Each structure stands twice: as structure tokens, then as C-alpha cells.
Task: inverse folding
């Protein structure tokens, strides 16, 4: 048992795409996979539960398809992932994982006895499935269907259901397991509702393409230490140099926002004509 300093090593991304039917989750997943493999779709496998929809996008390239038939049990998905691992796939697309939850809910409804206690027979199966995704030695992209979510609001002494937005068809806490979760609307625009990479947090909505996958691959393959980026910021001698550091390391833009801003102000003061006296000496330097 030994303590060590934290360090991000080469990672395998685990991400989820959630949206309604027709939002473009399948195509977006393939474009991400194309970027993650540098266009080598021979190393991409789609585990398809959507009635053969994976074959609709063959124009993207020659990827592999493993079609599952009902019932969509967690055990069947685990076996399918293991088949893809044995074939040395670099990206595994699970399209989609919503049928797994539908299957477990159906299984739970048919169990005799106490409904609450019966979750002890369901939760371990769901957990084994999610653990397989997280422990898989490949990039994993999981898609999830969304449906309209409702809450009960009291009005005139009665409880009335009101719409509160879309909810993924999966266990409520499943999004916590993924590094990135993209919400895709019916116009195919994506926005990150969760992003531990900080590549997409707080950014405007956009359309997922191959370049998106390449950015994520760069993050996975760059075990850069924060102290190294801080040193680059400090050593920047011009705004152009600072901007270059900022753009080259998007995953550090938010964590090191204060350092970037402070250095930017320093460099702007150096080139601001108002900070110079008539003899060309920087007033800030004189005051120091």
C-alpha cells in the first residue's frame, strides 16, 4: 500500500450520447469513433440493438457490426463486449443501452414478493454491465434514448403531471459513470451536460464530427501535468504565445483560467502605449 502523486495516463474514453429518436446518435457515434481511430474504422465495432440501424451508415466507412436480438439482457451485452475485446477493437459503440434497462424493469415487474426487496436481484446485474463498460480496454460510446419526463405539481388540491424536460431511458445515476455525456437535440446539435475533460464544458452547442473525436483522442493520449502547463503560461513572452498554449491544451482552459487571465493582463500591460513614458520606459517597471 503506497501513496503516489496523481497523474493522468493514457485513458480510454467512456462517453454517452443521449437524445430522442432521429436526433443522430448513431451517426454521431460513428463520426466520434472515426476520429478516435484516426479514420481506421476497421477497429470500430457497433453492438446494434436498433433493428439493424447500424448498417444505414455504411457510407461512413467499413466498420464492424454485432447485431443483438432480444431479450437485451446485461449478460448478453457483456458477452458482446468481450467478443469485441477479443477482436482487438479500439472503439466499441453500444447502440443503444436503453433496452438493457427496459429488460431489467420488465424482469423486476415479474418477480414475486416484495417489490423493494426485489431490486437486490436487479441492481447487481446492472452494476456488472456498467462495470464491464468502465473496465473495458477500449474506447466505449454508449447511446441512450430519451423520453419526456414529468413531475407532479399540486394545483387546486390536486396533483397534476407537468413536463420538465427529457430524461434518458436508463438508470437515473448512469450518467455519473461516463467521462463525457453529450445531449443531442432533434436538429443534431450537441451540448455537453457532463464533461470531465473540460474540452466542451460551457461551450456553445455544435454538431459532432470526426474532429470532435480527434480532440478527445488527443486528451486521452496526453498525460500532461498541470505544473507543465503553468510553466508554459509563465514563460509566454507574447499574447500570441499565450494564445497558442491556451488553444493547444483545451482540457486545461477551465482549471487554469485564473493563470491564463493573469498572464494575459501582464502581457497586455507590456504593450499598452499608455503604460510608457515619453522616454520609452514602462511606467509599471519604473514603479517597481
Result:
Amino acid at each position: 500500500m503506497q501513496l503516489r502523486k496523481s497523474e493522468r495516463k493514457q485513458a480510454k474514453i467512456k462517453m454517452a450520447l443521449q437524445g430522442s429518436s432521429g436526433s443522430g446518435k448513431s451517426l454521431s457515434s460513428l463520426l466520434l469513433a472515426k476520429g478516435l481511430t484516426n479514420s481506421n474504422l476497421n477497429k470500430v465495432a457497433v453492438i446494434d440493438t436498433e433493428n439493424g440501424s447500424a448498417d444505414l451508415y455504411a457510407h461512413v466507412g467499413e466498420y464492424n457490426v454485432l447485431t443483438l436480438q432480444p431479450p437485451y439482457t446485461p449478460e448478453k451485452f457483456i458477452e458482446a463486449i468481450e467478443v469485441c475485446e477479443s477482436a482487438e477493437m479500439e472503439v466499441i459503440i453500444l447502440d443503444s443501452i436503453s433496452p438493457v434497462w427496459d429488460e431489467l424493469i420488465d424482469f423486476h415487474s415479474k418477480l414475486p414478493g416484495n417489490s423493494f426487496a426485489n431490486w437486490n436481484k436487479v441492481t447487481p446485474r446492472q452494476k456488472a454491465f456498467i462495470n464491464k463498460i468502465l473496465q473495458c480496454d477500449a474506447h466505449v460510446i454508449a447511446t441512450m434514448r430519451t423520453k419526456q419526463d414529468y413531475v407532479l405539481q399540486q394545483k387546486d388540491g390536486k396533483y397534476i403531471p407537468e413536463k420538465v424536460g427529457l430524461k434518458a431511458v436508463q438508470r437515473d445515476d448512469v450518467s455519473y459513470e461516463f467521462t463525457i455525456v453529450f445531449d443531442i437535440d432533434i436538429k443534431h446539435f450537441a451540448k455537453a451536460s457532463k464533461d470531465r475533460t473540460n474540452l466542451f464544458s460551457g461551450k456553445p452547442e455544435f454538431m459532432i464530427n470526426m474532429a470532435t473525436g480527434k480532440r478527445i483522442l488527443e486528451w486521452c493520449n496526453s498525460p500532461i501535468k498541470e505544473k507543465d502547463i503553468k510553466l508554459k503560461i509563465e514563460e509566454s513572452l507574447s499574447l500570441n504565445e499565450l494564445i497558442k498554449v491556451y488553444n493547444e491544451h483545451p482540457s486545461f482552459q477551465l482549471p487554469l483560467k485564473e493563470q491564463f487571465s493573469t498572464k494575459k493582463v501582464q502581457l497586455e500591460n507590456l504593450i499598452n502605449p499608455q503604460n510608457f513614458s515619453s522616454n520609452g520606459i514602462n511606467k509599471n517597471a519604473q514603479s517597481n
The chain has a mean pLDDT of 87. The first strand starts at residue 14 and ends at 19.
